[in-house]
Sequence to fold (303 residues):
Amino acid sequence: MMFHEPWATAGSSDDPATGGTASWPERAGPARGDPLASPRPADGLPDAHPALDDAIASEVVPRIVLAHRPPASPPVAAAQGAPAGADIATLAEAARRNDLDAALALIERLCARGAGLETLYLDLVSPAAALLGQMWHDDTASIVEVTIGLACLQRLVHALAPAFHQDDLRPDPQRRVLLAPLPGEQHSFALVLVAEFLRRAGWSVDNGRVLSCAALCDLVRQQWFAVAGLSVSCTTRLDVIAAAVHALRHASCNSAIGVMVGGPLFRDHPEFVAQVGADAMALDARHAVVQAESLAALMAGRR
Fold:
């Protein structure tokens, strides 16, 4: 996890209702601020034009449906061998000590109890990464320890990749996705898992880059992507996110690029998805595959 200069540095408020630009908070806490109120419709407006109705039906409504779409599968009872809270803490501690052998041994024990790698990625590795972040926030771990821990978890995912990808679908050249943190934020470990799930589903994935807004725009201008996914972990400023989404769309050589967002802010306030100009949001790596598939199909119809 590397720190980079914020894309937007002026201003200090992190309330989404305020204007200007936001600095990157020193610590990434939970999103604050009340949801933005939707503008009240003006009275006495004439009836909408049929063409406008058609546009709303064909573009706006599907985007809202995607933005609020729940995960593909409803919650189910914990499977045999599923990790418990103690397992999450054990993995986080092993990662903080940079003990990859201990982390792999834990994975092996849980697999022997019947847990699958998909379950372990979503219910063990991802929560362990979140726990490391919370430990930093609570001052129970240093930034060096957290950085080492997240790097160890990334090495763990890399070590498990051959087993996870043994049944991958063949990549489709029309299914190219760009995954990146919001410009100005640090690399997001969540994107590592999202990339793994998308690759297994047959997507060609470009991820792992921490890009400035200008570099992100140059990339989508020069290379074709069906979908771009932005991870938002720190800022709660909707204007900053909206500016990045607008810049990405304007620069993209694919005029129908789909934009997907993820992070605690959108998980807690899915109504913000449309407000920042995105098309969909993902709750986790598995849900990201469902959303990317639906979004690519929707946008293909607009080209």
User: Anything to note?
Assistant: The first strand starts at residue 176 and ends at 181.
